[in-house]
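Course assignment 3, question 2. Fill in each field.
Student: A.L.
Task: Predict the tertiary structure for the chain below.
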Amino acid sequence: MINIAVDGPGGSGKSTLAKVIAKQLGILYLDTGALYRAIGYTVLCRIGEEYTEAQVCDLLPSLSVDLRYEENVQHVYVNGEDVSSHIRTQPVAMAASRVSAFPPVRAFLLDLQRDIAARNSVIMDGRDVGTVILPHADVKIFLTARPEVRATRRVAELTEKGIQADFDTVLREITQRDHNDMTRAVAPLKQADDAVLLDNSELNAEETIDAALQIIRSKVAL
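Answer field:
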């Protein structure tokens, strides 16, 4: 049983890294951001773009959020509906960043995440995994890259999907989300004291994976 925490800002490649490592090590991958995106998506659908913390908190008792692994792929369900294909848009990402600052939302999802980690060997990525969700994780990595690099990667990703994207707009959104995540009162984005910093601004995906595996192997026997 090992727990690996990967934290870092949006666009640093946490999910890609965690998925590959999970497959290589034969452990479970848990995308915590997908849970917050599911809440953000539901808020946008039910309330709209203008909402208060009180409105979101009033919505929580009516929600049942569940993670299911189908053919080793994580799917997020809200009240029995698979919302996985709807939660990867930029508006949902911004909503996820905003609702994640609400303490009741974080408390609502905390037990679910910890329970999965208690029952499985997992690699979990997010923004407060090593500091709050799994403070006693066996390995903690803080993955980051310069905002301009992350924006360039995001534009390339969207373009590949046939979605038009403006670099300046994407960079502005990434910078705003960084600010939101780092300054929120509850569980802000920060590097855990015992996390290893991995800046992949000058690394490609393969080099990032190799560097992360070196960190993991230096901490635990595999």
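Instructor remarks: The first helix runs from residue 14 to 25. Residues 60 and 211 are 39 Å apart (CA to CA).
Grade: pending
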